[in-house]
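Lab notebook, page 48
Experiment: co-folding of the full assembly
Goal: obtain a model of how the components sit together before planning crosslinking
Operator: M.T.
Materials (sequences as entered):
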Amino acid sequence: MTRFPVPSLDDLPEDVVDRIEEETERAGFTPNVFLAYAYRPSHFRAFFRYYDALVEDTELTREEIEMIVVAVSGANDCYYCNVAHGALLRLYGDDPLLADQLVANYRTADVSDRHRAMLDLAVKLTESPAAVEAADLERLAAHGFSRQAIWDVGAVAAFFNLSNRMAQLADMRPNEEFHSLGR
Amino acid sequence: MTRFPVPSLDDLPEDVVDRIEEETERAGFTPNVFLAYAYRPSHFRAFFRYYDALVEDTELTREEIEMIVVAVSGANDCYYCNVAHGALLRLYGDDPLLADQLVANYRTADVSDRHRAMLDLAVKLTESPAAVEAADLERLAAHGFSRQAIWDVGAVAAFFNLSNRMAQLADMRPNEEFHSLGR
Amino acid sequence: MTRFPVPSLDDLPEDVVDRIEEETERAGFTPNVFLAYAYRPSHFRAFFRYYDALVEDTELTREEIEMIVVAVSGANDCYYCNVAHGALLRLYGDDPLLADQLVANYRTADVSDRHRAMLDLAVKLTESPAAVEAADLERLAAHGFSRQAIWDVGAVAAFFNLSNRMAQLADMRPNEEFHSLGR
Amino acid sequence: MTRFPVPSLDDLPEDVVDRIEEETERAGFTPNVFLAYAYRPSHFRAFFRYYDALVEDTELTREEIEMIVVAVSGANDCYYCNVAHGALLRLYGDDPLLADQLVANYRTADVSDRHRAMLDLAVKLTESPAAVEAADLERLAAHGFSRQAIWDVGAVAAFFNLSNRMAQLADMRPNEEFHSLGR
Amino acid sequence: MTRFPVPSLDDLPEDVVDRIEEETERAGFTPNVFLAYAYRPSHFRAFFRYYDALVEDTELTREEIEMIVVAVSGANDCYYCNVAHGALLRLYGDDPLLADQLVANYRTADVSDRHRAMLDLAVKLTESPAAVEAADLERLAAHGFSRQAIWDVGAVAAFFNLSNRMAQLADMRPNEEFHSLGR
Amino acid sequence: MTRFPVPSLDDLPEDVVDRIEEETERAGFTPNVFLAYAYRPSHFRAFFRYYDALVEDTELTREEIEMIVVAVSGANDCYYCNVAHGALLRLYGDDPLLADQLVANYRTADVSDRHRAMLDLAVKLTESPAAVEAADLERLAAHGFSRQAIWDVGAVAAFFNLSNRMAQLADMRPNEEFHSLGR
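Observation: model returned without errors.
Model output:
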């Protein structure tokens, strides 16, 4: 990250350091988004709290969440999220190809009709939010998504419309490890 | 809000109820975004924590924040945020006209060159995030924004790219009161 | 208006002065578009003659006309017309909210299916005129619009594609009164 | 014209018939726009009054006006205006090639820097009206256009944003004669 | 062509000269694309070999091919191809009007439903290639196009997405003769 | 490839089979584009002849060519070319990260100013070809590109505007091997 300083761990509040250390242990390296966001600890806390809510409190599978993230990030041309969440999708989905498909063009992805409907909503909410209407949500209901799951599909898409913009603003660079993880 | 159920206060966790009551007391009515988000308490907590961080922990004035919010929401064609934050801008900025200018077209707004630069970044990050480059940030530095303030301008814009999409997804409707507040 | 001089009434032809005085009497103030257009009296005459034909010689109600005007002006991001015709819509439609809905995003407006079809044609003709085809007109016929009313829906939309551009060219500023009229 | 009936001359008011006969005598055939607009005589009068003001009361040469018309109509993909005003440009400009250049892409046209600036404003006002700012007008002033001429450049462009939309709405078809006139 | 030098025939390889002479004999003048491409003989050979394959080895009629070319070139705003292939379409289609219709807006062209489907695919592949899906191809099958003809419709469109860009890059100018041929 | 049949080698002309066998030997597998294009042998020959001219007869390095290809394919959202040419760029450029950067957003790529200028032209010619003007080419000259190299930059970009469209039309799928080659 070149546009904002990356703080040293010594200068950070304990809860932020704790989270960074947890993530580092889990991944084997520190994903750069944690260092980038640590520039603003109050934002760090809110951002990851939101992220945690999205992935922990939902009927969506983690694979479905990462599919939405990568499709949205591909539509927004976000290098950091394409690569970091592409890796997560390869791992959670146990699929080495799907992330590259979604980065390019979610319409070319090998997904079920149900997941295609899910991605149609996520990408429409990304590219032409003002055109989203009730019928767009009902298509997901017809594929068996619960009301709450429909909210969550939209919420993941909306959150990554925030994330993609912060990554672009700050010029976040994905760790080299992410480029090949899960291939 | 017609696309997701609005929970009754009795069914909500205490901290969510507390926040809703505080807001109701402050405004004299309950802004609908609080009822809409209460559908998902874990999201409610994260969303408003982020919002609080943006408005409480920053060098930007509250008027500047609301200028960014309305310009971004106007660009995204968001009815809820245009109207609710238009009201906040009239109140915080003590200006009955600026919100209507920003809703229409931020280029027609009567603002200083410094604020024009601020809004140029916020709207570019909204409309063509992938085209934001270092030079876009440096223009703000030339107008005296600190590094942290530049992050915050981008962060407010990014957050309302999330909010605008949630409002559109859920078809949030601004309270009638907001339409005339501060005129 | 800052980009073209506003003539003094003394320098204007009598018919132009007469019209300005009539409008001033009707509104209680002189709507700025009359002063702006007076810069070119031959254009003034033609512009308001067209406008008069649109509002006086038609089956469309005045409320319907102002709905089209505000939806088109919102799509074109026109500050003057959003605000001045937003006020007219509040008055003619006896509705304090509809204008703010149409300014933001006509898809969020509380309107009948018949009016939604009317606005769909008006906004499509605004945003992608080359894609308008016979089927777009027939949808209005199916909602009971006569052939002549369909022409008029298109004509109001087309005329405000002219007006919005003149307002932007000349940087016309709506009178302060319009911002709160009818709220 | 297939979407609205073309009235018979016998059913039209005298002033409308007179104008149609004048035009027919001048051109040697009746340009279809006159028959199309005769469907709504009150609109006919206003439309051609505006047109007359634009071409008769201006410092712009008729060639310059037709250059603007064809560049705008090309940008709006309008078959009727491309062809009918393409013919007028060939005649008034005594240039068999310029119209085909402007229909395709005004940036490829063999025009002076002065006329390039004129067309830049006309096309910007057509394609992204909300982005037109004072600097766009000042570029024309720097090329020697008077204040009034700048208004007129914008007014011609704005008027054909109306005309192009009416032609598309009504599916106006240019007379066969226009396709080869002046080649 | 002003952006790259046009080589003299004496400096060109024999096969390139032969082709240029053949074309000159056929047309009565040397179409400028042959002189422009002669700047890079290896590209010349490949470009015209591809072109020959498209027009000689196909079930599509030459008129159909030129319809696709003009619709694609109109969508891409290509002056050279609009004019040169407009002339070819007038000649092969024995129709003096169709080219001007397709240059403006293929939706206004007087074509059969079968040819409308053909042009819909060609223009969609031009304007939003990533949105082309199986159903777009199947519409052509429903109109009786063979599998191979569907490939060829797409191939002609794709090839002119190359040609239009080379013409724009090199600022190729159509010969004056093309503007009036076949009118 | 699911939209067109893939011919068996036994049914193909000898020169096409020879080329396929060469490529298979070189890569260790048969890149699917060769099988896809074999559906139309006359197109196969022309397509690869053009490709060979672009990579063999040029001052551009192979790394530069693949940079252009991946930036253009990323802009066009082409799954096949992103992945297959991403692999070639990793190999020719000896860089495991650059392809993922260019697929996402060429503005985030770690490239020299010279290469940034090269990619600016290639992507502008892809996304808004009608806006390319002489000044766009002169920027490359200022960075030391010869006239012929400028043509070649444009020609590679133009050719992949053809390729990306054929890949999308035919739904070409990159071989699994390409996804991880050179990482």
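Interpretation: Chain D has a mean pLDDT of 97.
Next step: discuss with group before ordering constructs.
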